Amino acid sequence: MITEQSFTIKQTAELTGLSEDTIRYYEKIKLLPPADRKDNGHRVYRRKDIHTIKLISCLKKTGISLDAMKPFLKVSANPDPAEYLELIEMLRSHREDIVSQISSLQLLVDFIDVKLEEGRPRQECSEQNPGDSIENGQENGLEERKEQAKAKPISVEEMNYFPQLRKRENRRIR
Q: Rounded to whole angstroms, what are the CA distances from 22 to 1, 31, 45, 85, 141?
C-alpha cells in the first residue's frame, strides 16, 4: 500500500519559506483548505498543499491581494483557460502593471548608476573620446541596461503555475 507523503506544519513552513503562523492564517482566511489532522490534532500537509502555498507566495510577490488570489487558486489546477477568460484578462492586466513598475524601477536604477558614475575619479572620465559627451555615454549605458532588463526570463516554477498563459517555453518580459 502506497501512502502519500505528509508533512508537519513545521516541515511545511521550512519547505515553503513561510512561518507557521502565516500558514495557519492562510488556512483561517480560506486561502488554504483546512489541513488534515492527526489523531492528536496536529495539522498534516500534503504535496498539493505545499504547491498551493508556493503558488500563494508567487501571487503575493506580484502584488495581488490575498482576497484577489482566491479565484486564481480555485482555477489554477484547471488546464482549460477558456472557462476563465475574466481571470486570465485580470492576470494579464496585472502583468502589464508589473512590467510598468519594472520600467519605472529601472529608470531609478539608471539614475543611481548615472550618479555613481559622476562620483568616480576624473581620470576615468578622461578615457572618453573628446568628442563624446558624458550624456551620450550615459545614454548608451542606459540603452544597454534596458536591453538586459528585457532579457530576464520567467522562472520555470512560475511558468508551471499558469501553463495556459505560456505562449512559448522561454517567454520574456516585454
A: 34, 11, 14, 31, 43
> In 11-109, where do the E strands start and end?
36-37, 43-46
Q: In what order do the strands lie in the sheet with 36-37?
A: 6-7, 43-46, 36-37
Percentage of residues in the chain having pLDDT higher than 90:
26
Q: Is 94 helix (H, G, I), strand (E, B) or coil?
A: helix
Instruction: Look up residue 27 and give its amino acid.
Output: E
**Rounded-to-integer distance, Cα 135 and Cα 118, Å:** 11
Dist CA 60 CA 72 (whole Å): 12
Classify 172 as helix, strand or coil.
strand
Nearest to 7 by CA among 22, 23, 26: 23
Enter the pTM of the model. 0.58
**Cα–Cα distances in angstroms (integers) from residue 97 to residues 59, 63, 103, 162, 171, in the given order:** 14, 10, 10, 18, 17
What's the distance, CA 171 to chain centroid?
A: 14
